[in-house]
Amino acid sequence: MVFTVLKHLIGYLRAYKPLAAFFLLMLALDLAFISLAPLSFKLLIDKAIVPEDMDAFFLILIVLAVSGVICLSAGVLSDYALAKLTARVQRDLRMRLFEHMQQVNIGFFQQTRSSELLSYFSVDLPAIERAMNVLLTIGLQSLAVVTISTAVLIYLQWSMALAILLGAVVIFAGPYLLGSRAQAINASHKEQLDHMTGDVQENIKAQKVIKGYNLQQAMKDKFADRMQAMFLIHYRKNVINAQLERIPMVSLLLVNLSIIAFGSYLALRGYISLGSLVAFFTMYTSMGNSVFNLTFTIPTLTDASVSIERMDKLLLAPKEATGNMPLTSEQNKQPGIRFSGVSFRYNEEQEALKNIDLHIAPCTTAAFVGSSGSGKSTLVQLVLGFYEPTAGQLEINGHPMQDISRSSFRERLGVVFQENFLFRGTILENIRFSKPEATKEEVMEAAKKAEIHVFIMTLPSGYDTEVLDEGSNFSGGQRQRLAIARAILKNPQILLLDEATSALDPISEASINRTFKELSRNRTVITVTHRLSSITGADRIFVFDKGELVDSGTHQRMLESGGYYKELWDKQNGMQVSGSGQEADIDEERLAKLPFFQGVDTGILEEIRSLFNTETFAAGQPIIHAGEQGEKFYLIARGRVEVSRRNAQAEDGKQRLAILEDGDHFGEIALLNNVPRTADVTAITSCVFLTLQRKGLHYVLSKHPEMNVRVRQTLKERK
């Protein structure tokens, strides 16, 4: 353990050899005085006090004073050198970790808790700094004192020095035997710290959900369980660290008693002089304290060794694969993308894509559509180079993706993700991230095209408005428009849109879609969407289901040929949402496509249609709580929701069951009986629902007994 830490610390210091050498030289002068000072007692007693020689007395004092001033100055200089040395090493380690994080494969981040990554900087690096300070001060000082004192003690009385060395073995035996156990406990303690930090971080971000579901007490109970586990491991860590200090202390006490008795005996028998005895005891006391100080460093070294191992986990994580071939402007002028037999797995159990063959011609607009989890967003991540295909090949302009420099390729990309991130800083800086050299006028023009300029100008500080943590002071739609402005500003040759308008109201979405249509000229555009009405003009639509490409073509051709795309279209068609996004309607033809209303007379459907109400929910707002009584049916006119079930074993306390989108429905069992809900439903984006009360439906059906029986039977079968 000690050698591992020493090896790493020496490696950290190699970059600053001159400064390290200066520190060691100054420290050596300081330690020489501290180590040899006890020897002055022998000189004072034997050369000055006993012979009563005043000249020798003053000479010895002058030498001691001059030496003390020189060594004290050297000690002060060594303090400054050490301060600069440790600060530089910490800076280098922080930069090394951070730079490596920028190059690590994105899969590593998805498999590692963010709290663990943060703890490298907040827990592990400080532990290494403490170990470095301890080793370069207490450690080196104690080692020097022990080494010099041992040599002097052997000179003064070899038999007593031998006894002291045997005692030192006893002092270090306990910490050595406890070392592996202490290291394991420290590792467990840091793991629990990671979990605790993650729980707090998650709780802060999930406050809307927690308060919406009234989960405050559940969160307290969960955190109390975490604190109990934290208490147990913290208690064990404190005990083992106390033992690492207590055992050497007891051993040192026993050795002290033995040496005092043995030394006094030798003096009584005349084997050593009184001055030698005083010098011996004084030097031994200094040496004993140094030996104890060396054992005191063991908990610090144990903690640092765990931190070094943890940091190696990040530093040894595989970097993002990248080729060396740059894409020149000529090569990327007409970008084309081809997937040839591409399959992809996130892990052994999850196959996201299966044998995909498709071609996106240069300067065309391609749309990826399909139900949630069909693989369309995974394809975009492959195009971005976040992952490598498990099988098959992705080509850009005929060049294999693995041969192309990721940096060169991404310089020509613009992307708007489904979940958009804003950095701390001003609005101006956030938009300008995609093109740092852009003027403010260019930023404002991009914001106008993204339909966010007017809103920005209403803010007191305009484009200089500060963005709070992850953009928390803006709505989801505003964050999305800022991200769109960022992509527009870059004026990329390949534009990737992953549900880019999912958080916008109908009017804004229509306006942004017109902007995207203008932007699609002379560039390749890939858009991922679940809202089919927005991609009817795409040059080619690729339809995915369960990771497979099941159809492709133009909107009109696939409608005429039927198939899965037409099913998706029919599910979303027949519902209208007002421009404000506050009102929705459904026609009888679409109503008749609901399984439990199939075959119902048009006149009855008109009555049922009139019973539907419009309800809206904001992103993150709970819609249904498991266990509450159900009396309402929901049809999604616009938006996306998550269906989940509470699960204490899951990392975030819930098990995701499904993602539902435009045209999907849920809660139909409530139309039959007033039974408890079996799952939670939460809005992912702003949602508009058409809702139907059970009592209203029963009233209409009661007037038509034959339809009443049929609808009830269908609902029972679905149950």
Structure, briefly:
Helix content is 57%, strand content 15%. With 719 residues, it is of the alpha+beta class.
Topology record:
Layout: H1 2-13, H2 17-36, H3 40-49, H4 54-103, H5 106-111, H6 114-156, H7 158-205, H8 207-212, H9 216-268, H10 274-315, E1 337-345, E2 351-360, E3 365-370, H11 376-383, E4 391-396, E5 399-400, H12 406-410, E6 413-416, E7 425-426, H13 427-432, H14 440-449, H15 453-458, E8 466-467, H16 476-490, E9 494-498, H17 506-519, E10 524-528, E11 540-545, E12 548-553, H18 555-561, H19 564-572, E13 575-577, E14 584-586, H20 588-591, H21 602-611, E15 613-617, E16 622-624, E17 632-638, E18 641-646, E19 654-660, E20 665-666, E21 680-683, E22 687-693, H22 694-702, H23 705-718
Parallel strand pairs: 3-10, 3-11, 6-9, 9-10
Antiparallel strand pairs: 1-2, 1-4, 4-5, 7-8, 11-12, 13-14, 15-22, 16-21, 17-20, 17-22, 18-19, 18-21
Helix pairs in contact: 1-10, 2-4, 2-6, 3-4, 3-10, 4-6, 6-7, 6-10, 7-9, 7-10, 9-10, 14-16, 21-22
Could you please describe the fold and organization of this structure?
With 719 residues, the chain is an alpha+beta fold. The chain folds into three domains: 2-315, Up-down Bundle (ABC transporter transmembrane region fold), CATH 1.20.1560.10; 337-566, Rossmann fold (3-Layer(aba) Sandwich); 576-718, Jelly Rolls (Sandwich). Helix content is 57%, strand content 15%. It is built from 23 helices and 22 strands. Strands 6-9-10-3-11-12 form a six-stranded mixed β-sheet, with helices on both faces. A four-stranded antiparallel β-sheet has the order 2-1-4-5, covered by helices on one side. A four-stranded antiparallel β-sheet has the order 15-22-17-20. Helix 9 packs antiparallel against helix 10 (274-315). The chain is elongated, with a radius of gyration of 37 Å.
